[in-house]
Amino acid sequence: MAATAVRVTGLTKHLGRRRALAGTDLSVRAGEVYGLLGPNGAGKTTLLKIVSGLATPDSGSLELFGAPFERAALRAVGALVTEPGLWARYSAVEHLRMHARLRGVDPGAVPELLEAVGMRAFAARRVSTYSLGMRWRLGIAIALLARPRLLVLDEPTNGLDPVGMRDVRTLLRRLAADGVTVLVSSHNLDQMAHTCDRVGVLADGRMRYEGALEGLALDGDLEQGFFALLDRS
Predict the structure, then answer these.
(1) Residue 76 near residue 103, CB atoms below 8 Å
(2) In angstroms, rounded to a whole number, what is the distance separating the alpha carbons of residues 99 and 62?
(3) How far apart are CA 49 and CA 210, in angstroms?
(4) Reduced to 3 states, what is the DSSP secondary structure of residue 207?
(5) Residues 6+ apart with CB under 8 A from 138
(6) With contact defined as beta carbons under 8 Å apart, do 33 and 57 qualify?
(7) H-helix segments, 81-161
(8) Quick one: which H or E segment has residue 64?
(9) What is the pLDDT of residue 158?
(10) Three-class SS of residue 144?
(11) Which residue, of 14, 145, 182, 198, has the fewest CB within 10 Å?
(12) How far apart, in whole angstroms, are the C-alpha atoms of residue 195 and residue 32?
């Protein structure tokens, strides 16, 4: 059995009076692309924030790389869970070089990262001229700077055109082939079908399904099966 990169057991989290997670379980195998699916308000972003150290649960347990969670493990985690925090006056190259200095990593990887996320042609332009999709691509590059073992992404194809979606999908598959574990959320079933090894479906703060995406299909129809699962939840 493959080693586990992320294991979540019985996580609960309240945001004010609202229950965001209600005893959520999750298991992500090392080296796979795992897709987190669910409607708005299901708890996906809250779960990803906890996994990436941006939030703490009320109860339950989290393991990273086979050990109980410790903040030191976050050095091996790259995350883009909210819209990238970028400076309008600086370019992609300047952002990456600044983040490299802050993290103490070699800036020599900057050209390679820009190429990987399809931003090489825009590397010298100020962020103020970027579309939303271009900002997300730069955010992914920043998350990859430290060459993480685990990459956590919340809706990384947000604002991308079909070519951009394809490029991100290709990048995630290439990262997994190189041994990086990817945990990614999305509303796009088609993208998940072409990207993920396994998926989890979150609804009302609970995991309703975990396994191969094909297992969700109802009479061969993936979308019909997905909505039927949500209706039962």
Answers:
(1) no
(2) 27
(3) 20
(4) strand
(5) 84, 86, 92, 95, 96, 117, 119, 127, 130
(6) no
(7) 92-103, 110-116, 132-143
(8) strand 59-64
(9) 74
(10) coil
(11) 14
(12) 10
Is 223:189 a contact under the CB 8 Å cutoff?
yes
All domains of the chain, ordered by start, with CATH? 4-232 (3.40.50.300)
Cα–Cα distance measured from residue 141 to residue 135, given in angstroms and rounded to the nearest whole number: 10
Q: What is the DSSP letter of 218?
A: B
104-124 pLDDT tens trace: 888 888 999 999 888 999 999
pLDDT given for residue 28 in this prediction: 97
134, 118 Cβ separation under 8 angstroms: no
- What residue ranges of the chain have pLDDT lower than 70? 1-2
pLDDT of residue 2: 64
Tell which residue, 226, 233, 210, 204, has the closest CA to residue 43. Answer: 204
- For residue 91, the Cα-to-chain-centroid distance in whole angstroms is 24
Which amino acid is present at 206?
R
Sheet of 206-211, strand order: 77-80, 150-154, 181-185, 33-37, 198-203, 206-211
Q: How far is CA 112 from the centre of its chain?
A: 21
